[in-house]
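Need tokens for this chain, all 138 residues.
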Amino acid sequence: MRRFYLIGFLALMAFDTLAQISFKVAGEHALPLEFSPAWLLRVFGQPWIYGAFIGYLGAFFTWMVLLKHAPIGPAFAASYLEIVAVLVISAVWFGEPIGWPQILGTVLILGGICCLAVSESSTVPQIEHAGQPARHGA
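Here are the structure tokens for all 138 residues:
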């Protein structure tokens, strides 16, 4: 089951990151903003807008499958790994600066995920045995 969670969260992070980066690049190609048929053709004529749609659809379906199987607390926290991934990719591809607030936010996100993972792993045996009747005299 851990492999399922790992693959699922990596897929979720990849789809979310694809969507965010694609919207960034599509937005740059959409300038200057104007509501006209020529603008719509320009926006929908380049592939990044479709990457955004694919990313959001993939993230939605991946998230629905994960929520069916994974505990909600760690699942929700792990979904924030996308923020860290987008931060790193934005710095590398777009040259956006990473300052102390971004570093602090990344540390807090990763720390929160680690705390939830540790607390969840210590409660899993209790949850798995909660539905079983107690054995007296054992």
